[in-house]
Amino acid sequence: MKKGKFIFIVALLAALLVVSCGREKSAQSDGGGAPYEIIVTYPHFLGAPKDLQLVEDEINKISIPAVNAKVTLYPFDLGQLANQTNLMVSSGEKLDLLMCLFQGGPGNLVNNGQIIELDDLYEKYGAGIKAAEGIAMAGGYFDGKLYAIPSEEKMGRRNGVMIRSDLLAEYPWNKKEWDMISYEDLDGLFREVRAGAGDSLFML
Questions:
Q1: Considering only CA atoms, which of 155, 143, 153, 154 is closest in space to residue 115?
Q2: What is the mean pLDDT of residues 90-101?
Q3: Residue 159: which of 177, 174, 139, 181 has the closest Cα?
Q4: CA atoms of 27 and 99, how far apart (whole Å)
Q5: Of 52, 7, 40, which Cα lies nearest the Cα of 157?
Q6: Which of 144, 137, 136, 95 is nearest to 115 (CA)?
Q7: CA 139 distance to own-chain centroid
Q8: What is the largest CA-CA distance in the chain?
Q9: Measuring CA to CA, how many Å separate 35 from each of 21, 28, 132?
């Protein structure tokens, strides 16, 4: 499985464990009934993945035995994510988990009555999430209450800079080792290019 898929599955399962564990005992008490279906929306950038069903299958191999929950994924174009989410909610369509990406954080969703508090579930079932996320959990709070769980995709990010090729060709700084640069190195490059190119600066 590709790294990106694995990170996505880990992020989703972190949220599922909080949302779904509250249903686990009731599912067991009625003889282990049919899995509860969890509808999840998330953004895509370059078109919906062709192997989406494979990702769902891998998630459900974990979530059904663990918490008796079956996941169905609904990918939306990034630019349409907020509109599609609002349409689903306003039309009464089932929606259990969503991403707050580019929606102003959980605040707007709370004010619109679109998401519920997670404090009780988090305290009861979220010890593993708390240990893994640490200070990152602060981003999930609004008005003192928890409404969101940070996604684990941040663990797969890599830092870097993008610089115009003509500037790289013109200034000798480009001969340095790119895999071992610091913020101080970049400060030196900023000064050098600004002195020689004025406002023709590169893009970060």
A1: 143
A2: 85
A3: 181
A4: 26
A5: 7
A6: 95
A7: 12
A8: 74
A9: 12, 11, 27
How high is the mean pLDDT of the chain?
A: 76
Give the model's confidence band at 72: pLDDT under 50 very low, under 70 low, under 90 confident, else very high: very high
- The pLDDT of residue 25 is 46
Q: What tokens appear for 184 in the block?
A: 């101080």
User: Which tokens sit at 21?
Assistant: 């564990």
- Enter the DSSP assignment of 201: P
What are 134's two structure tokens? Answer: 């640490």
Instruction: Give yes or no for a contact between 81 and 25, defined as CB atoms under 8 angstroms apart.
Output: no
C-alpha–C-alpha distance, residues 204 and 125, integer Å: 40
Rounded to 10°, the helix 3-29/52-67 angle is 40
Q: List, for residues 105-164, the tens digit of each pLDDT value.
A: 788 888 888 888 999 999 998 888 888 888 888 888 999 999 988 876 666 666 677 777
Is residue 176 within 8 Å of residue 192, measured between CB atoms?
Answer: no
**SS3 for 108?**
helix
What pLDDT does residue 146 have?
93
Q: Report the alpha-carbon distance of residue 136 to residue 201 in Å, rounded.
A: 33
Instruction: Give the amino acid at 101.
Output: L
Name the pTM for this structure: 0.61
The C-alpha angle with vertex 64 and arms to 60 and 65, in degrees rounded to 5, equals 120
Closest CA to 88 of 69, 70, 114, 111: 114
